[in-house]
Design brief:
This is EGFL6 protein. It comes from Sitta europaea. It holds the Pfam family MAM. By secondary structure, the protein is mainly β. The chain has a single domain, classed as Sandwich (Jelly Rolls). Helices cover 0% and strands 48% of the residues. It is built from no helices and eleven strands. Strands 1, 3, 4, 6, 9 and 11 form a six-stranded antiparallel sheet that branches. The protein has a five-stranded antiparallel sheet with strand order 2-5-10-7-8, with no helix packed on it. The radius of gyration is 15 Å and the shape is globular. It starts with a strand and ends in a 6-residue tail after the last strand.
């Protein structure tokens, strides 16, 4: 497995320069490192912030599982979407409201065909809310299919 966490991970993360705002590091409650977050008050409604994970060395014709923690905290905080580079138009994963302030786990299967996926983009869309945040943490890429819960 490849650890893509923000504090000590080995992966290559890039802020998108064509979007409306950047994701920023936020300290974890437990004080052990940080996660990436977009506060609810940043930008205007429907503004986008994209954080891209560059994937290199993925073998063609193999399966991978991207596992990550995410949180949508706050009323009308917005949307979190995940896009794969070879399927640009539609998100492969989307969440638009949190039931509570808790962190949850997201999983995405990445099937490498002849064309390989060379990046994964986490996109935050600003909602109407003024409080809360969208956060992503503990991003790990494992080879093989995603495990059942």
């Amino acid at each position: 497995s490849v650890d893509c966490s923000f504090g000590r991970g080995v992966c290559d993360w890039k802020q998108d320069t064509d979007d409306d705002f950047d994701w920023n590091p936020a300290d974890r409650d437990r004080g052990d490192g940080y996660y990436m977050a977009v506060p609810a008050f940043v930008g205007h409604k429907n503004d986008m912030g994209r954080l891209k994970l560059l994937l290199t060395d993925l073998k063609p014709k193999s399966s991978y599982c991207l596992i990550f923690s995410y949180r949508l905290a706050g009323e009308k905080v917005g949307k979190l979407r995940v896009f794969l580079a070879n399927k640009k138009t539609a998100p492969v994963w989307e969440e638009n409201k949190g039931k509570d302030e808790k962190w949850r786990t997201g999983k995405i299967e990445i099937f490498q065909g002849a064309e390989t996926t060379n990046s994964v983009t986490f996109e935050s869309e600003r909602g109407k809310g003024k409080t809360g945040e969208i956060g992503v943490d503990n991003v790990v890429l494992i080879s093989g299919l995603c495990p059942e819960d």
